[in-house]
Amino acid sequence: MTSSPPSPSASRPARPGPASSRTTPPPGAPAPAPSGEGAAVMLASLAGFDGCFGCGSEAESGLRIRHTGVEDGVVTCEFTVRREHQGAPGLCHGGVLATAMDEALGGAAWLLGNRYVTGRLETDYLAPVPVGSDVHVRAWCTGLDGRKAYLEGEARVGGPDGPVAVRAAGVFIEVPQEHFVPES
Ligand SMILES: CCCCCCCCCCCC(=O)SCCNC(=O)CCNC(=O)[C@H](O)C(C)(C)COP(=O)(O)OP(=O)(O)OC[C@H]1O[C@@H](n2cnc3c(N)ncnc32)[C@H](O)[C@@H]1OP(=O)(O)O
User: Fold this and answer.
1) Residue 148: CB within 6 Å of ligand 1?
2) Fold category of 36-176 in CATH
3) CA-proximal residue: ligand 1, atom 44 (nearest)
4) Digit-coded pLDDT (tens) for 89-116
5) Could you give the CA distance from residue 118 to residue 169 in angstroms, rounded to a whole number?
6) Ligand 1 in reach of 119 Cβ (< 6 A)
7) Of 28, 50, 74, 167, which residue is the least packed, with the fewest Cβ within 10 Å?
8) Pro residues compositional bias: what residue ranges (predicted)?
């Protein structure tokens, strides 16, 4: 039930602990080394597609997540909670926050240099996130097992060092390019 990020450093937080047995890498599953090539693949993919509900500039009702960096295998991104993102009055909807975690964990998976889709996503909500908040998300890979990549992440409110509002863990499955449907 517990694991550590592949190579702890100042930019890589201590494991937040959201993972269940289904989102914890099996014993011996290698944690990947950060890959500059993978980052290039991910950024090229992001540059070529504007329709993503998470980060696309053409998705008017989407979150407009801004990818802000990749360092030492950790993907960082952020978005601003708008009025249309509300669930309970004045607070960000949990599904919106799950979308942001999906986006960040997905980005950290694509950083490995292959294409992945979400198989399982687990979220722990630790604090309410008011409308108008800037939400800072980061994610990293904890292990690889065949086509399965294990990811964890966290979202902080107000800044990269703000209080943690969400922690997440997931399993993403590698797929071929043919998995995706060309835009109509
Ligand atoms: C544009 C640039 C963006 C770049 C940045 C990217 C950001 C994107 C973020 C958004 C990502 C998304 O929302 S993706 C959209 C939401 N997700 C989806 O639509 C996925 C829908 N599901 C599927 O298409 C399918 O079920 C697949 C592809 C996941 C698996 O089907 P498959 O290919 O037939 O493979 P299958 O044999 O079933 O499984 C392969 C291995 O994965 C395991 N596995 C399968 N499902 C799961 C699961 N839910 N939880 C755990 N493990 C699982 C199996 O046990 C097996 O392990 P073993 O036997 O090998 O050990």
Assistant:
1) yes
2) Thiol Ester Dehydrase; Chain A (3.10.129)
3) 119
4) 999 999 999 999 999 999 999 988 889 9
5) 11
6) yes
7) 28
8) 24-33
